Amino acid sequence: MSAPSAASPAASADRSPQALSMGPLGRVAEGTLAMAQAEMRKLRHDHLDIITRSVQPLLWLFIFGTALSNTRALTLGKLEYRAYLAPGVMAQAAMFIAIFFGLSVIWERDVGQLQRLLATPLSRTSIVLGKAAGACVRALVQALLLLVVLAVFGIGVRWSLTGVLGTLVMLMVGTAAFACMSMLLAAVVKERERFMGIGQLIMMPLFFASSALYPLAIMPAWLRAVARVNPLTYEVQGLRQMLDGVGGRGVLWLDFLVVIGFFAVMLVAATRAYPKAIL
Amino acid sequence: MSAAPPAVLVDDLVVRFGEFEAVGGISFAVAPGEVFGLLGPNGAGKTTTIRVLTTLLEPSEGRALVAGFDVRSDSLAVRASIGYIPQAISVDGALTAYENLDFYGRVTGVPRRERRERIDEAVETMELEDMLDRLARTLSGGMLRRLEIASALLNRPAVLFLDEPTVGLDPNARAMVWERLAALREHAGTTILVTTHLMEEAERQCDRLGVMDQGRLIEQGAPAELIERHRTDSLEDVFRTITGRAIHETEDDEEGRLSDVRAQRRVARRLG
To answer: Where are the domains of chain A?
Structure first.
């Protein structure tokens, strides 16, 4: 088959498509916001999703929390165990949302949404950030509901505007980081069934080998060593510092630094691996 | 012959996956405003070609220009100049038709001040007025395809790529999709590159065809021209004359692949 004569690209290259009139940062911001807004709209159409997702942290708080409070096995000073537990279950519930977000991105690949997005001027960073923002929206709504429950039931957290705002910021960064980790996992695993198993395999150790349920001090040395390299530990410590006024080492900036660092690493890794690797 | 540069130019394009050569040195050009069909059985390399042209895949060798931009060196400009609808349904079922349009308007860089007008235009072209507030998952297969096409028109693409746009649709919905595409072409002069394995559709709807088989472009020209050149009665016979087998025999061979079966079932399920 003979090759057609090659037309000079110069004819069109002198006109830049209108979609590129916005700068690269503007396009990243616009794409990320568009994806976050789409996630909010989906939540608005499906209230049941938020309600069902909110049950799990409440079960931890009221069943596990009440049971362990009654044993008085943990020495927490004047702090009620449920108040101690609340930041842990808040972070855990957000992490569950974030990690299983990978499932939805595999689904989006299967139904063609990902291919569509990749053929738009959106950058890969924008797609990854947009997906992470979607997980953050869901985690944020869930966290706000949990805070309302804490207030209604008079569970003794330390209420302050900066504490609550800081809590939500920390939760967003942590959720975005775990969502990026989930996309990285989706890029490697590629199949929903396999993702479910591996997701559980990663999530449960992250949860139990952290300070979400109990202080690091009561752990055996080997488990404490694992918990100290677990980013969820730092996220929970930060949340606890801001909501309860107590934390692991009481160094809030270090907790933020670790969680932000984890997010940055996961964002770069996910942007490199996902989404093309999943096609 | 028009002096205008081609809307799509493919020159000796090769795509390899490891040892396997999915596309083996194909060349063709699509003129502005033309409807060009890539026709061939499953596994012929049509989707791989379209993925290169939409920048989803990098070519192993050769070059391809879309709207004058090189898919390898100027991929962002290519993506900003095209509309693409993959074979699987790509709109979000959990959003309404309008929300899907708004979303694709934003991510394809349509300026905020023009978005509403562009959406109205696309809605009118695809006749979607009555379904804008419905969740996409409640729409029929034909409506979903029209919604997808509308969402791909918002950035006024120079080239619209459609990968098997009527697969899984009943004949009425199929006719409606083609009727709307014809209206789009008449109204905006959009260049359309479509892949299909349906002979009748290719013959009736495309100005010119590239016939693909096993990664090679084995013939190209206007449907009537191809039929005349090979002295046959139909495109089916053209394919048989060149390859020695019917297009559907080849499809039967491909149907054994689990990934294909799963993909086809997913599309069929989504299209109802």
So the answer is: 25-70+78-278
Contacting residues of A for B263, CB less than 8 Å apart: 110
Q: What is the CATH number of the domain that holds B244?
A: 3.40.50.300
* B84 contacts on A by Cβ (under 8 Å): 115-116, 119
Give the C-alpha separation, A14 to A9, whole Å: 9
pLDDT digits (tens, 9 = 90+) for A102-145: 888 888 888 778 888 999 998 888 889 988 998 998 899 899 99
B3 inside domain = no
Say yes or no: B48 contacts chain A, CB-CB below 8 A.
no
Of A21, A30, A279, the CB nearest to B56: A279
Contact state of A9 with B69 under an 8 Å Cβ cutoff: yes
ipTM: 0.84
CA distance B270 to A85: 43
Query: Can you tell me the distance from the alpha carbon of B178 to that of B161, in angstroms, rounded to the nearest whole number?
Result: 14
The domain of B123 spans: 8-271
Indicate whether B57 belongs to any domain: yes
pTM over 0.90: no
How many domains would you assign to chain B?
A: 1
**Contacts A–B by Cβ distance under 8 A:** 148
A136's tokens? 């953050």
Residue B25 lies inside a defined structural domain of this protein: yes
A16 contacts in chain B (CB < 8 Å): 77
